[in-house]
Each structure stands twice: as C-alpha cells, then as structure tokens.
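Archive entry. Fields below.
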Amino acid sequence: MTLETLREFGANVDEGLARCMNNEAFYIKMVNMGIGDKRFESLKDTLENNDLDEAFEMAHALKGVVGNLALDPIYGPMNELTELLRSKTPGDYMGLYNQMKTQRDRLLAMAD
Amino acid sequence: MDSLGEKKLDSKKGEYKRIVLVVDDEDVNRQMLGAILESDYEVIYAEDGQDAINQIKAHRETLSLVLLDLLMPELDGYEVLKWMKEGKTINRIPVIVLTSEKSAEVKSLQMGAADFLAKPYDLPEVILARVRHSIELSEDANIIKATENDHLTGLYTREFFFQYGKIFDHHHPELAMDAIVLNFNRFHLINELYGRAFGDTVLVAIADGIRGILEESSGIACRYDADTFYLYTIHMSDYDRLLRKILKVLSGVLKAPEMRIRLGIYPDIYRAASLEERFDRALQACNSLRNKYSGSFAVYDMDMHEREVYSARLLEDFEQALEEKQFKVLYQPKYNITGDRPRLCSAEALISWQHPKFGRVRPDAFIPLFEENGLIQKLDRYVWREAAEQMRKWRINHDIIIPISVNVSRVDIYDPEMPEFLDKIVRENEVNPRDYLLEITESAYTDNSRQIVQVVKDLREAGFRVEMDDFGSGYSSLNMLTALPIDALKLDMAFIKDISVDNKEMRMVELVLEIADFLQVPVVAEGVEVQEQYELLKKAGCDIIQGYYFSRPIPPEEFGRLIIKEKKGE
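PREDICTED_STRUCTURE:
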C-alpha cells in the first residue's frame, strides 16, 4: 500500500495524511489496520439476521474509522448505511453494504 | 500518589506536559488522535467507558482533559459524562466529546461537556487549538474558584466580592441595595477562651446565617477579614429580623451574652457613593456600636456622615491648630474644703480648641478622636508644657505655687520617653514635681495593670504625684487598689450628679471616701455644680472640690485674679 495506490483508489490522501501529522508510514499503517477490520465481514451477518442495533453500532464504528482515514469511496455508502440504520428506516441495507464492501475489496486488491 | 511524578517535563517549553485522556473504542481513532496530541501532551488511553472511569480515577489530580467518544459498547460516553458530573469531576477536568452528530453535540454540552470535536476529525491544528482552549479555560476557572472563596466559610473573598458587587451594580442600577458590615465584637476573646478551632466554628456559623439571609433576600457576601463580614443585598426594611436570624444560628454554638454581633448598615438611599464608600459608611455605623456587648445594629445616617466629615476636618486641622495656638489651656480651680472656708489649692489644666471655622470645639468631640489617631500624645505634651510654664509664671507674678494636675492618656503610659519629657519640663520651669499632678483614668489601670503600676511607680519615684481619675467608672478590684501607688482619688462625675441625702449615690460616695481613708489618700470630687452637692460632700468628709460650683475652667489671666483674691483671704 502506498499513497499513490490510495490516490488512485479515490481516497482524499491530503486530508488523511494531514490527520496523521503528515506521517506517511503512520497513515499507511492506520489504513491497513482500518480496512483489515473483521467487522467489514461480520456486518453482513448482522444485516442478514436483521439485527439492526448491532449493525448500526458496527457500521457507525467503521464509518468513523474510514472517515478519519479519508477513504471516501468506502465512506460514502457506509455513511448512508449508518444513517439508515440509525433511524431504522427501511431501505436497501444490503445494496449499500455491497457497494461499500466492493470498494473496500477493491482497495485491498489494489494494495496487494 | 506523586502527582508531579505523573507529569512529564517538556524540555522545549520548560514546563510540565499536561495529561490528556483519549477515550475511543476504535484503535485507529485512538492512535490518530494520539499522534496529533502527543507533541504537546502526555496522552493516555481508554478503550471503553469503564476503562475511562478507571483512568480518570487513577489520574484525578493530574488529568487536564478528556477527549471522549460517545458511542461505545457497554458503558458509553454519556454514562462517563454522567459519572463525572455526579462526582463533580467535570468541574475540574474538562471534557471534549467526539461526535459526528449534531443532536449529540447539544446533549453532551448540556451534560457538562466543555466542547465537541466533529468526526471525521478536523485538521490537527483545529483539534490542538480547541484542546488548548478548553484546558486554559478550565484552569483559569479553577484558579478563580480557588481564590474567589474564603477557605473557611466558603463566602467570597473581599476582592471578588467587590468585583461581583460592581458587576451587579452595572447590570441593576435600578435596584436599591444595602451595604451591611457584620462584625463580631472582641472575637479574640472567643479564640482565647475556647481555642481557635471553636472560633472557626463560630465564624462558619455566622457564614451559615448570612447564607440563610441571602437565600431570602438576593445578594452576595464575603468574609472581609478575621471576624468581619460584608453583605451586599437588596434593600430590606427590617434589620432587626436580619440580626435575629444571625443570632439564631449563633445560638447553636454560643451562649447569648457571648453573641456580640453588631451590624452597620448603609441603605442605598443616596445612590451617589461608590461601592467602597458605601461599605466605608456601613463600617462607620458598625464602629459606632463599639461598646455594645450584645447583638445590635446601627443604620448610617447623614448625621453620621456629617460627624465623619467633621471628624476628618478636625484631624486634618490638628497640626495647623497647634502651630497657630488655637488650642488654649484653661484652668479649673480645685478647693480644699476641709477647713472653715474653702481654700484654692490647685487647678486642673484642661484643653480648649478655638477653631477658626467651627468656633469652640468641645473636648469630647476631639479628644476621643485624637486618642484613636494617636495625635493625643502630641496634644498632651503641649498641655503639659503650657501647664508647667504657667506654674512658673504664677510663681513669678504672684509669688505663689499653685499645683496643677494634667491628664495623662493611655497611649502616654506606653511611651518610654514620657518620664524624661515630664522631668525636662518641670526642670526647665523650676517646678517641684511634687506640685505637678498626673491624672490617670481608672480604666487605664484595668487595661494593663502590671505595666501601669510600674510606670506610676517610676513617676512617683521621680517625685510626681499621681491621681486616679474617674474613680468609680472602671472596675478596680479592692485588692488591686491596695497595691496601687496613688496620691489621690478623683471621684467620677457621674457619682456626684445625682447625690442627695441618704440616697444610693450618696452612699456610694461615702463608700469611696472610706476606701480613700483606708488608702490614706485625699478624695477630689469633680463636677460639683450646686450648693447641695457641696454641702453633702463636705459633710461626708470629702477633701477637695472641683466644679462649676466654684468656677468653670478659666483662662490663666482670670485664674490670676482668683489667686489674688485667695491671697487676700477673700
């Protein structure tokens, strides 16, 4: 994973890097930690089980992390999903999850 | 816990790094915030609410700020805020909440949070500035809290009291306010009798009483100094009730005769004076109750104000009056009545002030004033010297020695140079110190008997004679009287005023005469005004009479004529 990969992915690298005091290695380390989170997978199960409270907590936590890391392509659908879950508004949870998951998997693939 | 040991020294700034606690359940968020903060702060972390509470407890004394995520599993950020608020921890340690929601911002601010930070995080500069700002605000507030209240009573300190009073006045110029000074008369006696800890209990009780009053009638109060309290309240009509309320609280710790509370009140009716001036006047009203021994209050009035201005003017004019010889020494003759006819035997030198603006100023208007301000010593010396010179003049002009008595003030007794001064003036005027009588008021003896007995002994050894003045007004014990080195007793005027055949006052006079007889000293009765008093005193065996019955105090020229008459045996 490099800054170039992240730029190519669509992350707001300048913003993410600034939050990491412009420490490139630290930023990359945080991104790796963030996107390696197992909850990206387990969120799917909770949505499928219709456990909306648990799903909201997970989505909210992951949203916070990807937001801070400025991973905008993941943050977009994750934010939308979180807000739907917060208000428990019926909606296309799985669709949003899949959008988000696709972006996250794309980044993992780019980093390999 | 070694609190200093917990802080790390920042060698760059030469000061300790403050400790900031970051609470977030997400490792990434914690680490990112830590990276931002660690250049300026010592950062510690908590992964959840319970962990946060444990960390706050462990670093209670040294923690400068908490950065708190709100949504966390188990115990969330709101619970932490609630816990901090309940334990009042939040009053000292500010909390900045981390949130992405607008509604959460409002709720957390209502719960006592100092500020909030949005998620995703703002730029590090913004975060650092807001953290710094919150810490500064909190530290300033903590310093203010530590200095705005009196440690013992919890009331304001005087500086903050006046500051808040002025702010109040600024916002409420329409409200009538009272400036009230509350003082515990002779509080040192409580400390001496029962110990300082009990004295503190009494002060706290007074403060509790004051708080009770302030709950009813809005206002503020401070402990001005040791045993004086200032209250600034909305104008009230019943000051007696105010006093009773304080006394009621005090009755829980003190017996009634010991509750020597006095209140001086300046009601805000003149509106023109500054806050300090209003309290100066309340204090003056309070001081007017100096000799009251039980609870009492005095309301400042314009008479008091005029008296104050008058007193200030007299004090200011003192030096000039001395230079311009506005002070005149008058002589009131004393007659020996033991023989078949009264014989002029001596005189008392008395001071009189002919003021260029006020005319004749009564001695009772300026002598207590000068006693308070220490000027009396200078005035006494002026009188002493004049009297000695006068004795010399009479001796030269009339070839007669008229002994003169002069008044010695309390403060003179403590002046180590007094005997030397007296010795000097009698020698300069070739006066025999035996003919120079010193009148010392009885109450001076009871103030500090050991010191005064020594001074009087020294003066008598130098040849002077000493009269105990105002005898009967003080509280001399019979035991002390026998030990006293005195040459005469001067009866207090108050005794003479009401004497008549076989009444109580007359019997008191007879009793004093017996005491004098026992001590083998003569008795001088002053304030004798009428024939009846003269007759009664003569019959009872009084030796010497002074008063308007014979003569008012008169200028030396006039006294000279009395001498001539006396010499002719008229």
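CURATOR_NOTE: The helical segments of chain A are 3-9, 13-19, 24-35, 39-48, 52-68, 72-87, 93-111.
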